[in-house]
Write a structure and sequence with these properties.
By secondary structure, the chain is an alpha/beta fold. The chain contains 13 helices and 14 strands. Among the domains are: 155 residues, Rossmann fold; 59 residues, no CATH class. A hairpin with a 5-residue loop joins strand 6 and strand 7. InterPro entries: PAPS_reduct_dom, Rossmann-like_a/b/a_fold, Sulfate_adenylyltrnsfr_sub2.
Length: 408
């Protein structure tokens, strides 16, 4: 059933369409029930070409889709002025300070074993350091710091991750000037929302700083569709195709939100919140609508290509099927790094591959930790230690969906 408020006079329903299975399901649900609506697609500039083609297919079957996209030209111009007036002196000061305080870590081949001392109390245990030869001794972190904390050192199964020394005054001035010049040379609008946003921020989105959804989807739809609609209608209902099955956070969302974003007359509706995977594919099949072809090629999500939350298996599919997408992101990494105050930025965090995780942000480079460096890890199994030869040999014409029923 559709909420009766969606049918009230002087009300318009805004249905977000991404090219994915869930947004399609809610669009079809609205069509089935004769809901007056406008379908909207927020173009991030980071979609796979097949998704853009699929949106054209949906328009031919279901009706027009209004396309919107963010424009960061004004913010980029303001950022250029800020860089010119503020970066140089601040960078000199920062570059002269030690950029990482060293720390001890387990040496290669060593690991920690936790032994429970009380089966009924999981907080009562001992930890032992296991040597490569099987020897075992009580685990205690070294308390001392090496005399030379700027170089590597080894001590009884531990290795010292050295501090990163700050630059002298002259070198800091040269590096600061180079970073200012690099940013001003590269920070110019490209017309691609995702790339422009990342260059503006000097970084890519991450789990803790997921600014992409808000800036590239929420805001363009709000400013270019919702607010103008509120001038024309008394009530605007924004449909969101999220489902409780996807995550605990989404499971906690309400089906209806009144006056969302503290905006009178704007309401959020989540009509498929309780639907399962099979439900969203079933409604498409009932209407004779094909799923986005990316679902048949190993993708569990079909928005950004790739998403910052891409699974290892998805990344393997992208490296194997669409190396041109990896090459595009690699070029973006160099552009974003050139606009970054740190002089570096990578699409994935430097801890993405546990075998070579690096937390010293200031020594991370695009060459060593850029997206192209993750190919071997993505194409391996068993924690990244064994190459998956079957993945390399897979027939790319064969359906490999992670969702049941898609390949039927």
């Amino acid at each position: 059933m559709i909420d009766s408020r969606c049918f009230q006079n002087d009300t318009i329903n805004v249905i977000s369409v991404s090219g994915g299975k869930d947004s399609l399901a809610q669009w079809l649900l609205a069509i089935e029930h004769g809901v007056q609506h406008t379908a909207v697609f927020a173009d991030t500039g980071h979609e796979h070409p097949q998704t853009i083609e699929y949106l054209g297919y949906l328009e031919s079957k279901l009706g027009p889709i209004k396309r919107v996209k963010a424009d960061f030209s004004r913010q980029i111009e303001q950022k250029r002025k800020f860089i010119t007036n503020n970066w140089y002196q601040g960078l000199i000061t920062d570059l002269m300070v030690d950029r990482f305080e060293g720390r001890w870590a387990l040496a290669s081949g060593f690991r920690v074993q936790k032994i429970m001392l009380d089966e009924d109390d999981d907080t009562y245990f001992d930890e032992y350091l296991l040597y490569p030869n099987g020897r075992r001794e009580r685990f205690v972190w070294p308390e001392s710091v090496p005399d030379d904390r700027y170089n590597t050192a080894v001590l009884n199964g531990f290795q010292w991750i050295p501090s990163v020394k700050g630059l002298n005054q002259q070198d800091a001035e040269v590096e600061a000037a180079a970073r200012v010049k690099s940013a001003l040379d590269n920070l110019r609008p490209t017309g691609n929302p995702f790339l422009d946003l990342c260059m503006l921020k000097g970084r890519f989105p991450s789990t803790k700083a997921r600014f992409c959804t808000f800036e590239l989807k929420h805001e363009p739809v709000r400013t270019q569709v919702v607010l103008p609609a509120l001038d024309e209608y008394d009530e605007v209902i924004s449909w969101q195709g999220v489902r409780a099955q996807e995550s605990p956070a989404r499971a906690g969302l309400p089906v209806w939100e009144e006056d969302a974003d503290n905006t009178p007359g704007l309401h959020v509706y989540r009509p498929i919140l309780e639907w399962k995977h099979e439900d969203v594919f079933a409604i498409a099949k009932r209407h004779g609508i094909k799923p986005n072809p990316l679902y048949q090629q190993g993708c569990s999500r079909v928005g950004c290509m790739p998403c910052i939350h891409a699974r290892k298996s998805e990344l393997a599919e992208i490296f194997s099927r669409w190396p041109e997408e990896i090459k595009r992101v690699a070029e973006w990494e160099r552009l974003v790094a050139a606009c970054s105050r740190r002089g570096n930025s990578t699409f994935f965090p430097s801890t993405h591959d546990p075998r070579r995780a690096e937390q010293r942000i200031d020594i991370i480079t695009v060459d060593e930790y850029g997206i192209e460096s993750y190919r071997d890890w993505a194409m391996t199994t068993r924690g990244g230690a064994q190459f998956d030869l079957l993945a390399e040999a897979n027939d790319k014409s064969v359906c490999s969906s992670v969702y049941a029923g898609v390949c039927e």
